[in-house]
Amino acid sequence: MSYAKRLERALIEADLKAAELSRRTGISKACLSQYLSGVSIPREDRQELIADALGKEIEWFFPQNVMARNTAEELPDGRVPVYLAAAKLEMSPQSLRLALQQGRVPFGFAAQSEKGWTYHISSAKLQEYLGIKKESSAATEDPR
Questions:
Q1: Rounded CA gap, 44 and 102, in Å?
Q2: Half-sphere exposure of 13 toward its Cβ, with a 13 Å CA cutoff?
Q3: Which letter does DSSP use for residue 19 in this model?
Q4: Which residues partner with 117 through β-bridges?
Q5: Using CA atoms, how far apart are residues 131 and 40, in angstroms rounded to an integer?
Q6: Residue ranges of the domains in the chain?
Q7: Is the separation of the CB atoms in 80 and 134 below 8 Å?
Q8: Count of CB atoms within 10 A of residue 1's CB?
Q9: What are the φ and ψ backbone dihedral angles of 127, each rounded to 5 degrees?
Q10: Do residues 79 and 100 make contact, with C-beta atoms less than 8 angstroms apart?
Q11: Helix, strand, coil proportions of the chain in percent (round to 5)?
């Protein structure tokens, strides 16, 4: 479920309108409208304000990140899914997609076609970026 859908659900559960959330957080109605429509995702400081005002944890808005972190899922060989890489980097999948589209990360890229964007994240390069070393059989052998 997207951030926009989770935010909409949280507003319903809290029985609040966007205007009241705007008043409680100091975030403009225009920005909240963009978050609710899925055009953008709030910065981390705004995510905290929204979560506090709605009585939720930030992680509630990004359940796929919590799942990936909590299951200690290892990175697969080859291509890594965006949700898993984002979880390992502790960022939202949307932010990672944007960084890939803009060529701002050394471990992957995005390619645009008529059907939309395709994301490619190299497991080996991501592990290197994160400082994760794969244990090889030679490293576990007795050096004598």
A1: 20
A2: 11
A3: H
A4: 112
A5: 30
A6: 3-61, 63-130
A7: no
A8: 11
A9: -60, -40
A10: no
A11: 55, 10, 35
pLDDT per position as a tens digit, 15-47? 999 999 999 999 999 999 999 988 888 888 898
Which pLDDT does position 133 carry in this prediction? 65
Find tokens 């409680």 and name the residue: 24
CATH topology for 3-61 is 434 Repressor (Amino-terminal Domain) (1.10.260)
What's the CA gap between 93 and 119, in Å, rounded?
A: 11
Instruction: Tell me the C-alpha distance between 47 and 72, whole Å.
Output: 24
Phi, psi of 140 (to 5 degrees): -95, -10
Cβ distance 81 to 89 under 8 Å? no
- The yes-or-no verdict on residue 96 having pLDDT over 80 is yes
24-28, 48-52, 85-89, 105-109: least confident range: 85-89
Short-list 75, 79, 87, CA closest to 120 = 79
